[in-house]
Amino acid sequence: MKNTIFRIRAVAVLVAVAGVTLSNVTPASAAVPLKNITHRYVGSAVAANHLANEADYRSVLTREFDNVTPENEMKWGVVEATRSHYDWSGADAIVDYARRTGKSVRGHTLVWHSQLPGWVNDLEAGELRSAVKQHIATEMGRYKGKIRAWDVVNEMFNDDGTRRSSVFQQKLGDRYVADAFRWARAADPSAKLYINDYNTEGLNAKSDALYDLVRKLKKQGVPIDGVGFQAHLATQYGFPAGYQANLARFAALGVDVAITEADVRILMPADAAKLAVQANYFKQLWDGCHAVARCVEFTTWGFTDRHSWVPDTFPSEGAACLFDTNLRAKPAYTRINP
Ligand code: XIL
Question: What phi and psi, each to the nearest 5 degrees, are found at residue 316?
Fold first, then answer.
């Protein structure tokens, strides 16, 4: 789908490039937006409140990206904090924005141990199973046909490759994963269904476990279409070993792969050397995705250092995005899109 759009845009880009060579180019952004230099969807996590309140945020997002992922607005704890009382305001606003601007949406996320409403934790097994089924049917049903891809199951593994002992694992057992994918397919047959996780970018115990699970699910005929690699990296750690080979082995199972939440945090304060390492990491993430035919999407977890989950989550780390707080392109952006 993106391919057709890309060809039409390529013509527009030629015209645009011809135009800018004649006028002054502002250093704030490249002549050609990120979304126009690739056949992959290029996305960002977005927050509905910034979209509504910050015109400059909205305009860079609209210009550079063609996929949006709601950062929090579709999570269970947000849409149904109280049982049977729904708040779709943020999710609706993002889906509406995407439709107005012709962008695809990655739905995020349906079955996740975190940002879960308290009432879900209190259910006994039978009730929990119907609640998960109903949650998937209700949320996917509301946006049926409007979401390109859904993160159905998120972060189900521990780093050593064992299953996280979430409330789903504890009360429903191993089968909750296959059940969730089957319910998701029934709720919106047009959406691509993904399993998503972090620290699975390289070849390691966690990605081995994920690989094994996806292989088994495919063999059992469970409707899974893709694997999402979050790619929350940090410059003080090495780049994930075997990244491209890892993406390729998943693709060879017959699923799409996607970079779903890329950011590269820096131990503050940032300096030129750290920003150069960051640029290098982003470039490797980008190139590895482009080297694998079934890598269909490259999405970052926010696009500006003005709004990023990193400083709130990792004290003393920050500056993890492609644009700085003033929405100027950082070295990482220019490295990908010179
Ligand atoms: C994060 C959001 O960015 C924060 O605003 C929120 O407080 C916590 O969750 N993996 C995921 C995302 O799948 O949903 C998380 O998003 C980041 C890690």
Answer: 75, 5
